Amino acid sequence: MQKTVPSGRALVPFVSVENMARLITSIGLPRLLTELVDYIEQDFRRWQSFEKAPRVASHSEGGVIELMPTSDHVNYVFKYVNGHPVNLQRNLQTVVAFGVLSDVETGYPLLLTEMTLLTALRTAATSAMVARLLAPKDARVLALIGNGAQAEFQAIAMQTICGIEEVRLYDIDPAATAKTRAILRRPASGSPNAKASKRLSLARRSSPPARLTSKMPRSSPITWLVTGCISTRSAATAPARPNWPLPSSPVRMCSSSFRPRPGSRARSSRCPKISR
């Protein structure tokens, strides 16, 4: 009896969290972030080639589970991600994710991979890409407002891509700030010097102003942005639950807000286009 040999696509490659961590270590975080930023910018430049759809969200009392699909008609991909703040009480991660990459022509899955680490890297790389294009060239100070798990990724990405030398930290939870500061001060992280800030204001007179800010979901509202600052916001934008009240007027979502410097070519605070 002739033995049936499966096709080369019968076995779908799988990248676990452990293997993803090994891959990041072997490549090196600075090089990985630099190449990731370049790839993300290339995809933004071909924005119109992607199918874009709202997240498919399933809400519960404890959190939300979402599917995030897109396709460029060559490859189809989706990410499964959750957001469960109550997991902190269970000693579990609040966010976990995995993703599938498929071939559109055959429908075959090409890759199954963890995306918890990838999400942290991609989010930080996207902020750094925006900052590289829009931030003042002399920006050397970053303010991180909200010091959750994403904060240290933001700091390292901004240092690697934008040359940040100092990070100022703020969070409504002092323990979160202490955690982030401790991580960024580790020599192995290669991260800039981190200083804690107890108030939402510009620097003291003896310190240069912060020219870059990154706002996380845990933080208080920003009231201190001034001309010459660029702000990126890292937060989930899941569809509202059916029983949530809708805003009385349309809300325009944007991944970054920019206030141009005097005399710059940007004429408004709308999301600027990437120049070709």
Rounded mean pLDDT is 77
Shape estimate: globular
Cα gyration radius (Å):
20 Å
The main sheet comes to: 7 strands, mixed
**How far apart lie the N and C ends?**
60 Å
The ordered H/E elements are EHHEEEEEEHEHEHEEEE
**Count of helix runs:** 5
Please identify the structural class as seen in this structure: alpha/beta
Helix content: 25-40%
The strand count comes to: 13
Which residues form runs of ≥5 with pLDDT under 50?
198-209, 218-226, 244-276
Content of β-strand: 15-25%
Written description of the protein model:
It is a single chain. The termini are far apart. With 276 residues, the chain is of the alpha/beta class. The chain has helices at 17-27, 29-45, 116-134, 149-162, 174-184; strands at 14-15, 51-52, 56-59, 64-71, 75-83, 97-103, 109-114, 141-145, 166-170, 193-196, 212-215, 230-233, 256-258. The strands form two sheets. Strands 1, 2, 3, 4, 5, 6 and 7 form a seven-stranded mixed sheet that branches. Strands 10-9-8-11-12-13 form a six-stranded mixed sheet. A hairpin with a 5-residue loop joins strand 6 (97-103) and strand 7.
What attributes does this structure have?
26% helix, 276 residues, alpha/beta, disordered C terminus, 6-stranded mixed β-sheet, 7-stranded mixed β-sheet
Topology diagram in text:
Layout: E1 14-15, H1 17-27, H2 29-45, E2 51-52, E3 56-59, E4 64-71, E5 75-83, E6 97-103, E7 109-114, H3 116-134, E8 141-145, H4 149-162, E9 166-170, H5 174-184, E10 193-196, E11 212-215, E12 230-233, E13 256-258
Parallel strand pairs: 1-7, 8-9, 8-11, 9-10, 11-12
Antiparallel strand pairs: 2-4, 3-4, 4-5, 5-6, 6-7, 12-13
Helix pairs in contact: 2-3, 2-4, 3-4
